[in-house]
Amino acid sequence: MKLSKMPGFVLAIYLLFANVITVKAQDTWSLQRSVDYALANNIDIKQQDVQKRLAALTFKQSQLSQVPTLNLGADGTYGSGRNIDPYTNSIITQNYFNASTGVTAGATIFNWFSQRNLIASNKYQSQAQDRLLEKARNDVAFNVASAFLQILLNNEQVHISELQVKLTTSQLENTKKLVIAGSVPESNQADLESKLASDSVTLINAQNQVILSTLQMKALLNLGFEVPYIPEIPEKIADIPLPQLDQVDPEMVFNAALSTNPLIKADELLIKSMERSYVSSKGQLYPKLTASGNLNTSYSNTAKNDFVTGQLIVPVGSVVVNGITYSVTTPVDVKGYKTIPLGDQLNNNFRQSVGLSLTIPILNGWQARTNVQKAKLNITTQQLTRDKDNQKLRQDIYTAHANAVAAIQKFAASSKGVTASQKAYDFATKRFDLGLMNTIDYITTQSNLFKAQIDKVSAQYDYIFKMKLLEFYRDQKITL
């Protein structure tokens, strides 16, 4: 038969089975593979890793800030017109070039341990970011496991819907034969055709839920949407190891979580960081003693030396002796000038200095005191954050335990419902085959069984999820 001539619901079933056949030939993803891939590629984890590295850099920089500063500087100046001679400090009107270079060093001798406390604060901040990265990894692992279970549940619902469509299709074929034989009215065939259409819609919706849950998983994994994701379905979902309720008592789980939950650890580390930051800011209220040193030299093309190039006989007057006039002369040195060589200037102009500086804060717009008050409030804020996180953790654990108890009861009730619905359906099938039950009542009995099966599967997966959630709170890990 050509695809264009197939009925709509039959075409949907054909395409579904064709897809299943293709899927089986593709690679599958186990839960462990999914978690490992997410831990390496999830964007939230990458973002938190960047924050961790930034905190580590801040901590390292604060440690290195204890090392004395050392800087090398150089500058050059070209001037023209009326200026001050950089060599003689006299007024000159000529072009000149001047250059200088120097090394400066500085070190903090004492600042009331402000820097050391800042280093300790940054250390605790860095450790807190490590814990927050651990939390991000745990959360992603749990979310992947939850999405994995959701895909398995949706696949189970697809499987049940497929069986329902097959069953209704078979009943429709038999009814068509009976209608042709005149054994049953044609309305029976119409009722089953309507039922098949409804079952086909349910199947298509279930298949779409598989697609949507798979897209959610791909987002968690940061996996390309064109890459197929086929979960590795456990042979028996009922064999997944689950803790007993007495092993996940809410108060016991909470006490365990206080020592294993990375967010709680991060809160404690952040409080320590804020406390050290407070002590560091208090150190800024007191005097600060620093030392400095400087080495400097310079060169200028206006720095010149004079030298004698010869002598001139210069007349200075005359004298008369015994009536005879004699000229009086004196020798005068003829001088030349040349720029002092670079090496000589650098050596002659070499200067050294050392110094101590005491800075006493007196009035700076209350900035230092405001910083101290802010640091103190930061401690209170972080303590309240810790208390809030503890409260939320306890509430979440008690809520998860209550939901787990309800999930167990719901699963037990839905299991009984499937047994009862199956029995009612078996009886109805016998009566329907004998012509003792009309099609509407039979379809209703069949729908009740279908709904009971769906409810049982949903309750089973919900029960597994709730128990695994408690296990996650207790151990900070999840397995299937």
Mean pLDDT: 87
Kindly estimate the percentage of residues that lie in beta strands according to DSSP.
15-25%
Spatial strand sequence of the major β-sheet:
1-4-5-8
Number of helices: 10
Distance between the termini: 44 Å
| Computed structural class | alpha+beta
Write down the Rg.
45 Å
Query: Helicity, in percent?
Result: 55-70%
The number of strands is: 8
Q: Could you list the spans in which at least 5 consecutive residues all have pLDDT below 50? A: 1-25
Anisotropy-based shape: elongated
Query: Helix and strand string, N-terminal first?
Result: HHHEEEEHHHHEEEHEHH
Task: Give the SSE layout.
Layout: H1 8-24, H2 31-41, H3 43-64, E1 69-79, E2 82-84, E3 91-93, E4 96-110, H4 114-181, H5 186-221, H6 250-260, H7 262-283, E5 288-300, E6 304-321, E7 324-339, H8 342-348, E8 351-359, H9 367-433, H10 439-475
Antiparallel strand pairs: 1-4, 2-3, 4-5, 5-8, 6-7
Helix pairs in contact: 1-5, 2-4, 3-4, 4-5, 4-7, 4-10, 6-9, 6-10, 7-9, 9-10
